[in-house]
Amino acid sequence: MLCLGLLCFLVVWSHESDQQQRHSHPKFLQQQNRGLDTTTNSSSLFRAAPTVSVSEIGISVEEWTRIQQTVFWDGPDQPVTALSMSTSPVHSTFSIQNLRKSYRIGDEIFVTVIARDFKSNTKRYGGDFFQAKLFSSKQKASVFGEVVDHRNGSYSVRFLLPWVGQAKVAVRLIHSSEAVQVLKRHRDTDSDRVYFRGYFKGFDVNGTKLSEVVECNVKWEHNGLERLGGGNCCCDYRDAQTGEVWRCQKPRFLTCNNLVYHSMGGYRNRLTGFERKLMGKKLTNRGIRGDSRVITVLPTNTSIGVTTKCHPGVSTPVPAGFYLKNVWTSLVCSTHHFNNTEAKQCLRDRHIYIMGDSTSRQWFDYLRTAVPTLKSVNLHSQMQAGPLMAVDLDNNIDLHWRAHGPPLRSRKSPVADLHYISNEIDGLAGGPRMVIVFNVGPHFTTYPLAFFTRRVARIRAAVLALLTRAPDTTVIIKTVNTGYKDVFGSDWYALQLDRILREIFQGVPVFILDVWQMTACHYNKENIHPAPLIIKNEMDIFLSFLCPV
Ligand SMILES: *[C@@H]1O[C@H](CO)[C@@H](O)[C@H](O)[C@H]1NC(C)=O
Ligand SMILES: *[C@@H]1O[C@H](CO)[C@@H](O)[C@H](O)[C@H]1NC(C)=O
Ligand SMILES: *[C@@H]1O[C@H](CO)[C@@H](O)[C@H](O)[C@H]1NC(C)=O
Ligand SMILES: *[C@@H]1O[C@H](CO)[C@@H](O)[C@H](O)[C@H]1NC(C)=O
Ligand SMILES: *[C@@H]1O[C@H](CO)[C@@H](O)[C@H](O)[C@H]1NC(C)=O
Fold first, then answer.
1. What is the pLDDT of residue 121?
2. Is the overall model pTM greater than 0.85, yes or no?
3. Among 177, 348, 372, 412, whose CB has the most other CB atoms within 10 angstroms?
């Protein structure tokens, strides 16, 4: 075990230790005057730092420190006591810097966002979650711009001008800095706000059929998960390979061995009245006012695009690409738009294993449709858990999907069908014909970052072992979609998980297929399950990873 002193826990393990970056003295000296402590029970706000060691997660102290830096998020420098103190989507504005009469394709423009509270005062601190894009409705074109937080109420965005024609800027306030604090507090103290059920089946001593249903969740002695029970409360299901423990309350009559099914249990909304206001509809995901002038982009002799062949380890720039006439041009590497015949050619003689959640199941469904010779095999499994399978015998293609291990917000599914991604990868030989695809994120939004980090670190270990025994295996990671904006699954949570995933897979020769930008800048209303149009563009990148052009 590394670094087990009390101080070390506070410094290394405090989930809010990102705030140390702004202040030179240790966090624990000042935690009492931060956050929303005047409106909530402050004794429950700042729990003792979790007693989890870095070695349990399977990463080094240095790596954990780096991860904490990548998820750093600014926040209020004082207790938030009134709604009027929060950033207002109505009073905040954006402006285009030095707008010229016209631009050339490939030029950049800069936008400044000023966050203001409800009294129209410029904010002193950062932490507002804005999303920005440049778009043309007429040309069905858009591009994502990364918002940089200057931590003083001002933010800037750089945009590439990638298409000829016209463009306008749009900026949305997804959550105010104050609402982000609400999200953070619930993530760090209230992880059982999404809970699950375990279904036990068996017979009593007289041979009568019995079934019992109990509550289950991740075993983690903090963040509210300890509320499942103490002492001898529970059945702990420890996975031998990953060491992860899934925990269910003990059934009254049956034994722990009688657990058969798993399902989503429900949601517990523990937002206080004030927190509900900060997270309210009128303040969430709202476009802000700003410079609505049209940007004119003229052609040049050179067109925008990349010629780099797609290769493992390729990095994701901002922008990662752009839409024009509904078609996404990737700026990550050279991509092709595959018709059905070409898609089939590309998949020929390949064994494709997709693992994750319903958002990667969309990829399975897309491929099945795009290659009509791929026939679904009815495995009589639960659709939300899998396994699902489709085969094309003539072209020797087999396509698989299955859900990642628990936590999984699914309908009632056999527990035995829920496999951890790392275990699945450990059981595959790999090779030039094998394609391994996974995503993790949306089902982890309610848990501490350390828990997600451990899950992803274990997957990385499995991927590294795979690439050691079969270096020519294709591994593709799908990032998170934008979508939800509430305390159970906000884009802010997803973004933090996305950063952890990227940090952990830094330098590992895998393809990271960025869908964050593709979903955040599209004209469709955001949906955790994006429209077929978006999926088609994602799959063109996917196929370009397999069959580089
Ligand atoms: C505050 O939380 C503590 C510990 O969780 C609890 O004992 C106490 O009753 C709470 N106080 C209020 C006012 O809710
Ligand atoms: C905020 O910080 C940025 C970057 O350091 C700076 O350019 C800007 O002038 C600052 N704004 C205010 C209002 O202090
Ligand atoms: C089993 O049967 C016996 C005898 O009929 C009865 O007394 C007892 O209550 C039954 N046990 C259960 C758990 O139903
Ligand atoms: C673009 O091409 C035109 C003629 O084809 C030429 O006159 C002009 O100099 C070129 N511009 C650039 C920037 O290369
Ligand atoms: C698919 O594209 C190829 C060229 O890459 C073309 O030859 C073929 O006709 C196209 N097939 C269909 C069905 O459009």
1. 97
2. yes
3. 177
